[in-house]
Amino acid sequence: RHAPLQIGQRRIGRERRQEGDAEGPMSIAPDSKGNALVLDQVNGRIVRLGPDGKPIGTLKVPVTAAQDLAVADDGKIAVLDRLSDKTVAVMSPDGKVLGNLPLEGKGVAEGGGVTSVVIDGDDVYAEYEHGPLVLLGDTNGNPSADRTSIPGRPSRDGKTIWSTGITDAGAGRLWLSAFDRATMQNRFTRELTMGTPVRSIVLLDTDLAGIVYLGTVIDSGEEAILLTCIAPTDGHVLGSVELPASSMPEETTHDLAVLDGGGVVYKHLEASGVTIGHYDCR
Prior knowledge:
The chain is mainly β. 0% of the residues lie in helices and 50% in strands. It is built from no helices and 24 strands. Strands 1-24-23-22 form a four-stranded antiparallel sheet, with no helix packed on it. A four-stranded antiparallel sheet has the order 2-3-4-5, with no helix packed on it. The N and C termini lie close together (11 Å). The N terminus is likely disordered.
């Protein structure tokens, strides 16, 4: 399913420099009310869009070079700055800064190696080099004393830790592992075959029912994003759908986010602006 929304450039910033990378809106994250928060770091703000796609408010970004964001169930927001401030700023739903969680330390040798910020319940994690998640602190802005880590992405139903990687890019082969959250024992590891060369992995997350959403950039003559839905019980594929890949030069961090009730929102950058669409592969 696809319900596009055009967001004009007067609302969401984009920047093309004479030197350096072009930038568009870096990241998108849904909240528990069905809104979507778009990180418009070019204009130093977060734009909140309602379920109908209309802007319903903005918040000031409290870091120098924001690149990712995540939203807790209670509406608190974590904003990642991995290159300049090297911190995750935790904000209340109305934009008040509750605290700053340092990136570098145990589990994170260099802030530039952080690839995502993740909220799991009251815990705030940094994903390091597309691998383990390092506990930075909580959604009240309190840093973690021990900075423990987990080997992948926690499912929203609290049962599983998921991890994935590319086995053979040219053959389109990937591995997917499930760890029991309570015991941290491996439940299964299985191979997935995309049927076409894979360039990168751009999404691994679940909805509240536990269904896994895997996004891969594929190249079968023309680049596209393949969204695959996977059963949490044994890892078999439930369905898949292709999404158009952006051909724009703007740098972004995360263009896909899974909704609690299922499906994903996709932030697709085009010459005319940004299209926010809803897709499902179940």
